[in-house]
Amino acid sequence: MNEGDYREMNVLALDTSNRPLSVAVMADDQVLATTTVTVNQKHAAQLLPIIEELMHTAKLTPRDLTRVVVADGPGSYTGLRIGVTTAKTLASTLNIELVGVSSLAAIAANVTTDQQLVTVLFDGRNDNVLRVFIASLINSPLRSSLINTSRLKTYCKN
Fold this sequence. Notes:
2 domains, 4 helices
């Protein structure tokens, strides 16, 4: 490719970190195809067929991809292994870039107001909640913690 030549960035994005299973196919900043399904412990069985269906909808082949993006947690250990293993296998096989993205930062990125403090809460299991504070201007975690739900209920009452 010569300097100044432009190649479209075709991205496959995967999130298997929690109960919802989300997959998207993008060309630059345009979403070509996406789906989110709420499945219970069936990510392994559903991920590849969903990827295949969305690639077909987007009229792309695996060789057209230039990057694979995967949610790298926090989240379900098994769900993370499924998504990360799938993403690493595809990226390695296709010799393309692999990018890991925080599940919490991905949610916070939906806030488009600059200089806004965002709090994201995740189910931390065992009566715990994972909490992270993110400043949307810099989109990086400021502080995260695991808190017990009874402590959170007390905090919310005050």
